[in-house]
Amino acid sequence: MALQLGDVAPDFSADTTDGSMNFHEYLGDGWGILFSHPADFTPVCTTELGAVAKLGDEFAQRNVKVAAVSVDPVDSHKGWIGDINETQNTTVNYPIIADPDRAVADLYGMIHPNADNTLTVRSVFVIGPDKTIKLMITYPASTGRNFDEILRVVDSLQLTAKHSLATPVNWQPGDDCIISPAVSDEDAATRFPGYTTVKPYLRVTPQPAD
Ligand code: BEZ
Questions:
Q1: Is the beta carbon of 49 within 6 A of some atom in ligand 1?
Q2: What's the pLDDT tens digit per position in 108-118?
Q3: How much distance in Å is there from the Cα of 146 to the middle of ligand 1?
């Protein structure tokens, strides 16, 4: 059965450009992002991997560990990293998982046979500290992902985890937030003093400072 939100992110051990990895151990008690690439030495992927390297500080600030996966062996990945660093003017600072037998791709349903029988689609999994899947996004091979959007989602997920707040359409950090319907008016008054009731089901409060 396909993975769904709330499922435990499947654990695996694999060879990577940073050595052997056990995925759950690599994530530790923080957040994680696992994202797939159709293949090494492909143009769109090259730009994506460079962009993720440049966002390294942003991921670290959010306690997020990233790992890429592609269905090629580690020697190929290492050669490709040279090209990524050169052409994208950066240094890849996270592991790229080697998956020549497609074990990880199959575990995560990253191969969509009606799109392509051998290459993975562009999957993104955001995984919480409890190891459950908080977000899944799937892009076709021809469309590069927007990693600023993925950071925005991580900010929203972390806000929900910490404060029981949801985020409205097109929310950006610093914008007003929505009080989860699961929070009673009484609790809301204690936790979010001065919140605004637009409708009984639509209660809005400034983003907490911390
Ligand atoms: C790419 O990463 O550039 C790519 C890979 C497979 C199909 C199309 C584009």
A1: no
A2: 999 999 998 88
A3: 15
